[in-house]
């Protein structure tokens, strides 16, 4: 699902203009981005939680040349599915 599809679905479900749906989605995305940049955790009960994980600088090997290189420290966004989402996804496999 793309952002445009989400906006369209929100607009249709609540009978509001797409311009307003886009504004709602933009505020949600912007708020989540700001909180993650501040290092905060976001928890949406039944869906999952987003967090930021810090990775320290480390040495690695270039697989093509075999040369040892240093990989810079970085931060990455993580997602852990909530119990409700996991159960819905796995219900189809049962």
Q: Count the E strands.
A: 5
CATH class: Few Secondary Structures
> Helical element count?
3
Strand content: 25-35%
Give, in order, the helices and strands.
Answer: HHEEEEEH
Largest beta sheet: strand ordering = 1-2-5
CATH-assigned homologous superfamily: IHF-like DNA-binding proteins
Total domain count: 1
Portion in helices: 40-55%
What is the CA-based Rg, rounded? 19 Å
Q: What sort of overall outline do the alpha carbons produce when their principal axes are compared? A: elongated
Structural class: alpha+beta
Largest sheet: 3 strands, antiparallel
C-alpha end-to-end distance: 25 Å
Instruction: List the uncertain runs.
Output: none
CATH topology: HU Protein, Chain A
Structure description:
The protein has helices at residues 3-14, 18-37, 83-91; strands spanning 42-44, 48-55, 58-61, 68-71, 74-81. The chain is of the alpha+beta class and 94 residues long. It has a single domain (3-91), classed as IHF-like DNA-binding proteins (HU Protein, Chain A), CATH 4.10.520. Strands 1-2-5 form a 3-stranded antiparallel sheet. A two-stranded antiparallel sheet has the order 3-4. Helix 1 crosses helix 2 (18-37). The chain starts with a helix and ends with a helix.
């Amino acid at each position: 699902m793309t952002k445009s599809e989400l906006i369209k679905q929100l607009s249709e479900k609540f009978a509001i203009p797409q311009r307003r749906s886009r504004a709602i989605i933009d505020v949600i995305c912007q708020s989540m981005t700001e909180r993650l940049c501040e290092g905060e955790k976001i928890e949406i009960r039944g869906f999952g939680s987003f967090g930021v994980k810090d990775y320290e600088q480390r040495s690695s090997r270039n697989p093509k040349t075999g040369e040892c290189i240093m990989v810079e420290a970085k931060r990455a966004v993580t997602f852990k599915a909530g119990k409700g989402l996991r159960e819905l996804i796995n219900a189809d496999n049962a």
